[in-house]
Each structure stands twice: as structure tokens, then as C-alpha cells.
């Protein structure tokens, strides 16, 4: 096999979930039917890797020092929603009518992997809370063990700065049949049942 | 979302089997944890798209006018194995002890998709057979309807030039339990049963 082709197949394996077989398929596909797309991908990728950094306020990916959302007018600066990833931020932005600001951790507390408060930019977050502008911090980390630990830590940080922490509701997913919901969720939802009002 | 990030997510979708969600994950992954790999991928991809062409003899991908396998000594030039894709060629090269040459169709006859003899380089193949060097043409197209049609066409082409066509054996896969083999394969294998010799 051509050396350059071999290098291309190896290079594709930097992508998540791409092993040798998939990388090979990608390389063949690009060379056989997608040279223009491949050329474009190479160009955009090279540019993105150099030029996309992190917003100095929310840590989301941004080409500019402050991202469009943080810089934009018309957002409620008293609410700060803390998410793990840019994808989570996008999901909330798409699904809800939230008009406040965000803070992107780019991960969650995981001491075993060497991810502590510093790696998540919590010093930056603390300075933000010190500013006094934020009234409510909505903790939207995932409902996993690590996400919960992170949420706990964040809530303490908020309280230290006189900011009210809140957490996304947990319970049955909408449209979820009781029979197929996992035990943990069902047990939690049962215990956290709320009174029905007229 | 940053415009450049949006462009990167779109660009990734040129890859086979990559939709918007996967493209997004790839972009985030590269930016968050794989900038060096991303830089390398961009470079190799740009180079590959420009420099990798087709071998003028076998149509496999090659950086040089004639690929290493076609140019190499020590291959039996009387045998020519016709495969659909470079991946098929690689599979045969890895699994068998075949020492002849190859011809890569880069597809199979599919009139509805506009893929005819010309798109598969069969004019080049015909000239090769005219040369008189090839004695046996091993047709290793896939065992699908289109692969069979292609095989039929290739066999005729071979006979026209006085070359003996052969086809890979079809039957039960090794280690395959009868119970789980599909009906078509089982029926074919039963009909093509061979006498057992001492």
C-alpha cells in the first residue's frame, strides 16, 4: 500500500470512535468519491485547529476572545448555566427558552483522570461569581456519579459567593413508560413525587 | 456557535457514515483533546488528495504512476485477479498466498447509478488481456447481484481474448453452522456438493 495512504489511514484514527477499518473506509471514500470534500475538510480543519480557542468568559469554543453569546446583548446576566460540554450548551440552547449565560466546564471532576477544579476553570468561575452580577447558578452537569460530584462542588462554590444554586429536575423522562425506566430513576422519581394541584 | 466551528462540523460530514451528531463529536474531540492529531490529519489529507492517484496498470491507489505491486519483481504475471475495491485487494493479499497481479475496478457494474464498463476501466483491462501475458483471470467480485453481473461480463471479456476466467468458490463459510447459514448460500452449497475423496 502507498505510504501516503497508510499515513492517511493512521491520521484518521485520531477521530473518536474511528478504528483502522473505519479509517480505511474513510480514506478510500475521500480518494474515490470525495476529493473536493477532502480538500475542504483539510483546509477547514487546519484553520480551526489554529484559530478556534476558548471564550475568556464562558470557556466555550470561540474564534474571538469573547464568544458571540457572551458578548451579545439581550441575555439575562443574572442567570449562569454551568454545563459540561459545548454540546450540552447547544442542547439546552436548542431545547429550552433559556436566555441567561453559560459556563462550559469542558469536562467534569474526575480526580482519577487528573481532572480537578483547575482543569475545569473553576477559578475563572469563582471570579465570575465574585463579580456579584450572577444571582442564580443553574447546575446542568450530567446525572452520572461524576456529574453529581461536580454539581455538589459547584453548589458549594455558589453558596460561598452568595449565589443561589439550582439543579435540573430528575425523574421520569417525558413519554417514558414506567416499565422500561431504570430502577434508579424510578426509585428517585417515586421518592421525589410532587403533589398534584388543580 | 462559532462560524468556523460550524464549517468544520459540515466539512466532517463528507466522510462516509458521518452525520451531523458524529461530525459535531469529532470537531469537539479534535479541538478539545486532539489538536496535534487534527493538525496532522489536515496536512496528510491535503497531501493525499493532491498526490494519490491511480496506478496506470491496476487502477489501485498509488502515489507513483505504476504502484509498487505492479512494478515489483517476483509476482506471477500470468495471473490477474480482478477485485472491486482496494480494500478487497488488501483482504486477498493478507489472507491468501496469491502471488499474481491485480486489477481494481473501483466499483461494479451498476447501470442505474451510471457505472458502466468505462467507469470500471474495462477498456484498460481489455488492452491488458490483449497483451497476451495473462493466462488466467480470477474474478473476485462480490457475491451480490451486481457483483455476479460484473463477473459474468468480465468472464466474457476474458474468453474473447483467449484468457481462462475463474471465480472464487461459493459455499458454506468456514466455521459456519448450517443452522445459521442463509437459505441462498445453503441451497447453493447443497447443489454444488463435491465428492469426498480418500
Automatic annotation (TrEMBL), chains A, B:
Residue ranges of every copy of the Toprim domain listed in the record: 78-173
GO molecular function, one term: DNA binding
GO BP of this protein: DNA recombination; DNA repair
ZnF C4-type: positions: 55-70
Keywords: DNA damage, DNA recombination, DNA repair, Metal-binding, Zinc, Zinc-finger
HAMAP family to which the protein is assigned, alphabetical: RecR
Family of this protein: Belongs to the RecR family.
Function: May play a role in DNA repair. It seems to be involved in an RecBC-independent recombinational process of DNA repair. It may act with RecF and RecO.
Protein name, entry field: Recombination protein RecR
Lineage, broadest ranks: Bacteria, Pseudomonadati, Pseudomonadota, Gammaproteobacteria, Lysobacterales
